[in-house]
């Protein structure tokens, strides 16, 4: 039996998984107060506080606690896979590598080069190949990502700007023109713009359009599609997308990610498995 360790940017629907998943939570800071993501900070409380927060940021999982978790799991499981959000967006991957170095025979660290609900979609692919008896490597993950894509819309660029995920010039131009971008995470694990709309309703229509284009261009016959949203009040804007793609799995976007996207975010992930 194998086990997985994920950081708290790993957002999954409320479903059971065949293999156990253990959490290495990121730390979230709101107006100088430290919270442990998904431990003493619920997603709904986070978005409620974010609306009025003046300062907000994230920090790596606690290294000592993460190492203790690794030591515990390697005694209980044949192998442990540590799945990290993109190394271009966080230092979590490098921290996982450093912690696991003494146990490399029993621990594999993987840079999933994305975040949030796309991490779960990649996890599903990893499980698929585990069941086939394939060796799980970084190269396999990179191949999985070629047939997996996250598309998400944000209504405000200030959070991406503050977190350094988008340049100040682009953010300023977006505010002036009232642009609502649709973004993705590219093959290198960096956020990039794939479309721009000025009307909120157009964002929904564009998500459907580019989602269909990706399915066709990737030749996905029976794709797995999951939807994600930030603040609870934005879930309703996914209704049309969910109906169009007949989506069954929906997950709320965690504080670790929401710090950088803001509450006004929703999107989909399309994958092979």
UniProtKB/TrEMBL annotation:
Keyword Oxidoreductase (UniProt): no
GO molecular function ontology, one term from the record: lipid binding
Key words, A-Z: Lipid-binding
Keyword Transferase in annotation: no
Domain of life: Bacteria
Alphabetical list of Pfam families matching this protein: DegV
NCBIfam families: DegV (TIGR00762)
Protein name: DegV family protein
UniProt organism field: Thermosipho melanesiensis (strain DSM 12029 / CIP 104789 / BI429)
């Amino acid at each position: 039996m194998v086990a997985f360790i994920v950081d708290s940017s790993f957002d999954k629907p409320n479903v059971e998984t065949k293999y156990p998943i253990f959490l290495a939570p990121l730390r979230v800071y709101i107006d100088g107060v430290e919270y442990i993501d998904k431990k003493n900070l619920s997603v709904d409380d986070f978005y409620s506080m974010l609306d009025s927060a003046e300062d907000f940021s994230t920090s790596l999982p606690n290294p000592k606690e993460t190492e203790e978790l690794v030591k515990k799991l390697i005694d209980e499981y044949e192998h442990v896979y540590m799945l990290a959000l993109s190394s271009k967006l966080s230092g979590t991957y490098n921290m996982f590598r450093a912690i696991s170095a003494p146990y490399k025979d029993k621990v594999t660290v993987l840079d999933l080069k994305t975040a949030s609900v796309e991490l779960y979609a990649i996890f599903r692919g990893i499980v698929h190949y585990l069941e086939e008896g394939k060796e799980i490597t970084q190269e396999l993950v990179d191949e999985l990502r070629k047939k997996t894509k996250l598309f998400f819309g944000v209504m405000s660029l200030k959070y991406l700007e503050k977190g350094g995920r988008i340049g100040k010039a682009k953010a300023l131009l977006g505010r002036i023109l009232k642009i609502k971008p649709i973004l993705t995470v590219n093959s290198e694990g960096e956020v990039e713009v794939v479309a721009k709309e000025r009307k909120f309703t157009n964002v929904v229509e564009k998500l459907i359009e580019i989602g269909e284009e990706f399915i066709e261009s990737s030749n996905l016959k029976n794709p797995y599609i999951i939807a994600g949203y930030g603040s609870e009040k934005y879930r309703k804007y996914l209704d049309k997308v969910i109906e169009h793609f007949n989506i069954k799995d929906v997950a709320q976007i965690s504080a670790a990610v929401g710090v950088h996207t803001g509450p006004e975010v929703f999107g989909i992930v399309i994958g092979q498995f």
